[in-house]
Amino acid sequence: MTIRAPAPSPAEAVFPALGTTAVLLVTDPKALPAAEGVLRAELAAVDLACSRFRPDSELTRVNLNAGRPTTVSERFAEALQAALRAARLTDGAVDPTVGRAMSALGYDRTFAALRPEDARPLPAAVPAPGWRRIVFDPRSRRLRLPPYTHLDLGATAKALTADRAARRAAEAAGCGVLVSLGGDLAVAGPAPDGGWRIALADDHARPAAEHGPAVAVTGGALATSGIRVRTWHRAGRTLHHIVDPATGEPATPVWRTVTVAAATCVDANTASTAAVVLGDRAADWLRGAALPARLVGLDGRLVCLGGWPPDSASATSATEVASGDPR
Known about the structure:
The protein contains seven helices and 20 strands. The chain is an alpha+beta fold. The chain has one domain (2-319): T-fold (Roll), CATH 3.10.520. A nine-stranded mixed beta sheet has the order 2-3-8-9-12-17-18-19-20, covered by helices on one side. A hairpin with a 4-residue loop joins strand 15 and strand 16 (249-250). The longest helix is centred in the middle third of the chain and has 20 residues, at 154-173.
């Protein structure tokens, strides 16, 4: 997704964060410093709590303690609860216990440091241990992972940060705010006239076509998950970063990208990631969730669900309106 600024253009800050790009827009230019301070503080906090790649992160400590009880911080507990809720809502299609599977595939360092061509053989894939085996007491914040289990909170933690940062930045700035973290986007406060215009594309970091598909967002959140951008080669195979917990392998490619709208970025991200994992079963699952969604197949076939508007330029789109209000 790419943000197309409305007229008059809001103030903007763009900088690298969490291995991707953070984009902040505010409707009042004078409020940008306050909003940016909030966003940077939220990003620093979630990185220290949930990074798989920092030896000093809380997640690293938790993973090293797998099999033994440990007490976690409030920030980590919030991220863990978001991940467990995502697992419950998707019946395990999105599962935080895929950490070891991610590392086994070679994604054991930041994506920028990943070997794009890796000749090492792939170890045999092993299903994720499963989120139901996690023991966690939210009141005491006591956590026990199954032995040899590593958590990966990346997707839901990033979306949770977009939600938190947008809400807190809007409160601090007293104006409309948009926060985008690598395709996970949340808005808060009064939207500009006509809404925030979001261009849809496979790669959020590349300029979108001027007359390509776009939507206007006035509230809530959008998230896009896809298999085209974060890919690498290992042992002659093309791998991507969305793992099917049932197999420990990258999800079978069916959808190039999936974009979902929801009340929160966590819910949007949960649904878009689950759809990639579910593959051929994604459309039926999304109909049941009654969430607006746009799915692009490997061949460019477009499927719009839950009231998502069709791309006007697409001659092959299939548009459906599911019953029920979006969650």
